[in-house]
Design goal:
The complex is a heterodimer of chains A (about 525) and B (about 500).
Chain A: H1 13-16, E1 21-32, E2 35-46, E3 50-54, H2 61-68, E4 76-81, E5 84-85, H3 91-97, E6 99-102, H4 114-118, E7 125-126, E8 129-130, H5 132-145, H6 161-174, E9 179-183, H7 191-206, E10 210-214, H8 218-224, E11 227-232, E12 235-241, H9 247-255, E13 273-281, E14 290-295, E15 299-304, H10 310-318, E16 325-330, E17 333-335, H11 340-346, E18 348-351, H12 355-359, H13 366-371, H14 375-378, H15 387-400, H16 417-429, E19 435-439, H17 447-462, E20 466-470, H18 474-480, E21 483-488, E22 491-497, H19 503-510
Parallel strand pairs in A: 3-10, 3-11, 6-9, 9-10, 15-20, 15-21, 18-19, 19-20
Antiparallel strand pairs in A: 1-2, 1-4, 4-5, 7-8, 11-12, 13-14, 13-16, 16-17, 21-22
Chain B: H1 5-28, H2 30-33, H3 36-61, H4 69-83, E1 86-90, E2 94-96, E3 98-100, E4 105-109, E5 119-123, E6 131-144, E7 147-154, E8 162-163, E9 171-178, E10 181-183, E11 188-192, E12 206-211, E13 216-227, E14 230-235, E15 246-255, H5 259-282, H6 288-306, E16 312-313, H7 323-326, E17 329-334, E18 341-346, H8 347-365, H9 367-377, H10 379-384, H11 389-415, E19 417-418, H12 427-437, H13 449-468, H14 475-505
Antiparallel strand pairs in B: 1-15, 2-9, 3-4, 3-8, 4-7, 5-6, 5-9, 6-7, 9-15, 10-11, 11-14, 12-13, 12-15, 13-14, 16-19, 17-18
Helix pairs in contact in B: 1-13, 1-14, 3-8, 3-11, 3-12, 3-13, 4-5, 4-6, 4-11, 4-12, 5-6, 5-11, 8-9, 9-11, 12-13, 13-14
The chains are: A alpha/beta (about 525), B alpha+beta (about 500).
Amino acid sequence: MTMPSTNERPPTMNEALLNETVLAVKDLTKSFPGVRALSGVNLHIKGGEVLAVIGENGAGKSTLMKILAGVQSQDQGTIHLNNNPVAFSSTRDAMNAGISLIHQELNLCDNLNVGENLFLGNEPRRLGLISYRTIYKKSKASLEKVGLNLSPRTPLSRLSLGQQQMVEIAKALSTDAKILIFDEPTSSLSNAEAEALFTLIDELRTRGVGIVYISHRLSEVIRLADRVSVLRDGENAGELEGAEITHQNMVKLMIGRDISKFYSRQSHEQGKTLLKVNDLRTSTWPKHKISFRVRQGELVGIAGLVGAGRSELLRAIFGVDQALGGKVILGDFTLSGHSPASAIEAGFGLVPEDRKHEGLILDSSVVKNIGLAGLRHNSRIGGWLNAQQESADAIKFVADMKIKTPHLGQPVKFLSGGNQQKVVMGKWLSLQPKVLLMDEPTRGVDIGAKQDIYQLMERLAASGRAVLFASSDLEEIIGVSDRVLVMHEGRLVGELVGDDINEKRIMELATGGD
Amino acid sequence: MYENLTGVIKLVGISIILVALWIFLSQYASDSFLDAGNIENLLRRTALFSILGIGVAFVIMTGGIDLSLGSLVCLTGCFLAMFLSVDYQPYISDPVYSISKDSSSLLVPQTQRYKAGQWVRLYQTKRTRSGVFQIESVQQGISSPMGTMSKLGLTNAPSRNEDNEDSTAIARLTPVFPISEFDEKSSEMTVIKLGTEIENVLPRDKVWLVNSKNSFKEQAVVQSKSSGNQLVLNLEIDSSIDAKQWLWTPLQRQQYMSVPWAILAAITIALGLGALHGILVTVLRLQPFVVTLCGLLIYRGWSRWLSDDQSVGFGNEYADSLSWFSIGKFPITLPTGGDGTLVNIPYAFFVLVLIATLAIILLNLTIWGRYILALGRNEEAARFSGINTGRMKLLAFSICGLLAGVCGVLFAIEAGSISPSNAGSYFELYAIAAAVLGGCSLRGGEGSILGVIIGTALMQTLNNMIILLEIPDTIELVVLGGVILLGVIADELVRRILGNFNAANRRKDG
């Protein structure tokens, strides 16, 4: 009897599925009263391939994924898993069948540690009690699979967002998934972490796992996808394969029209110095002093790795976090140790990183959210609300910024990400700020809205104001900025203009190079 | 769909239930329910608890809670009773620093007031017996550690020797004067005016009547007339006295504070305590639940300490000034056939209308109302939009304290007395329940003043129904708790149904 050599392993179930159609979706239709979310959508995923599903907000991607993951069920159409028809009545069903969905918003508990989270809901038991020994033993293996080199006993709260996402992926993998669905996975990952994810996806591919990748970041799609399926208005808009996967083709199918230049950096006249930041020290990096200037008409981008201190800088300028020292001078106002109210009075506005928790009151209406920062400003003497002014402002901005909402009283939680972001911008624009601070201006925003937001930024610059924005999207930084400030571990390590604004140079500085 | 649709639906819902209950009670228990006194009582209780409910609604809207309301109501009432306490002291009074049985004498600070032959009353004694004495001689210029003294020789000896040990007096002395005449039929006593030291004896002052055999009466003055150098006092006395045998001295009514000031002071204390809650919550970042829970205990203990754990009351002193407020009413007649239904609207209800109007204006028409609601819904976003969240929370807690004080004052005046061990018990729960029933979510950011009032009315009507229909009142708490639970369940269901309806009507996120 010959023993199998160490190079030959019996193929795992997943590997056997390489290049076989694992999941086939036919004629999927789903309607909600009054609106048809999906209309006769076809999709198939083969083992060992990455299928990117792209489309504008409202195209139906989210509904499709929810049906696949068992969150909802379709009205018409079939789903076949390995040629067997399936119908999921719960996410558990889908998980047991091997389909796992990695959410954009993580489903982890930050009061538990990594190991406990990995096995949340699936805890190994011994004599009815949770066996922590098994948890920690098995965790090590799962964590290694995703390249996380830390102890399973680490409290989850100590991990960065990116690392937490890796934990969520490890969790899905441990359930022996055949199909992994990623929903905007890199939105809170650093470049290094994103790279680790891509490497992982590559490896999963070789192991026969089918991967569905939903993203607005088309460069990632180009990097990863074997095939791209484009949805528009609930229907299939087209498929691209191999060399056909280009930025232009994808956008054309998504929007249905040609957009030749996505980023258009128009030069605008730059006037005198508008904002001076002198020796600002944030509480996270008390030892580093940050100084720079911003001129009228400038769009200044702040680049850096996750954790470099970009958000902290913006928050310290705006007064949300107390700076430990230094001054912010805007026009006639000198601010130091100030509150957001003072910053607003001086002429700042801040579009925060987490719009759902920091930028919007979700249950509140569009008009009230737009009016939130301007209540005092618009009020009549004695603090009386000026409802007419509020409505007038809201009408103007909704039209101006092309915010898609059925009416002004609509709670903003029902708006898409891009429209929500526009509402947050509208809140500040109604106060005509001198400098608009933006933290991740287009995170979770679809293509069409992204363009609109860039246009708004341009318009601000053209009217003699300035925008100071932090972004993890290098394309965005390069495409939009007149000048780029690069941060590394709390220090401002470089200022780039003109031709120096390129990926290589930025990354060099951002990673601590010269 | 509109932002406030669930709120509106809830408001309409509880209004319908309220009106239905009223109609039911009008049919089934029309005599007792539609009785003027019953309706008045219902309106008064609704007013009181609504005021409390509006206060706590502001705190709930910022995402906090206040559990100390009942104790605060009790404390305010006790303070009010304390401030309005009345004391009667003789107009003329000297401290006594030494009593001598051996030499039949007293030592008082040097004064020309006492003459031989004058009668005096020794009172507020420690160990010596109080009594009436006649002065035999006056010696001035006696020096003592307490200063220069007059030594008053007495015709009779006091019961013992006593000297002061520290600088406090061991007794007090007041001169008593002869009575000219006493008319038994009209209870009028004629006396000679006492000159410059006492201007006049006023109604509601009192007098002491004593005689040489140590009998003693304290009587109230009903009326006083002056003619020439005589004063005619009409006393509240039911027996007759022999003018020749008795002597009198007037007592001055000392009210600690006038009524308006007392009320203001009591309410200010409540306001201050509310602000203290706010400071602890915003500056020290303590949880409102814990802070006000401690308040609940501390204020109750404080009330009991203030009043020596006794019931404190306002007594007959205030029969005139406060009664118009406590039992004053504004009668209107509803045209419901026949003679119409007489409804007496208590003045407290008008206080509620005023407060409710101000609250509604604050909440809906000013920027601060908006700030409070925004902060309750999403504190972070409010802060990021430049709202001073600390100040707004402080404002909410202060309003709550203020209204608790108002309720406390009204409650004390209406009840006439406060029993510190249980006055105000469970009031905070009624208030919170009314607020929740009326549409305030305990998560914050939502609230309706009108809803609070209707919620209170609903609970009070249910209470009334239990009494009128003679349902055993052990059930009362069960019914109340059950109603609130049903209200909250209904709220959640409506929210869910609306949510599904909404989800269907919008394009999904891509």
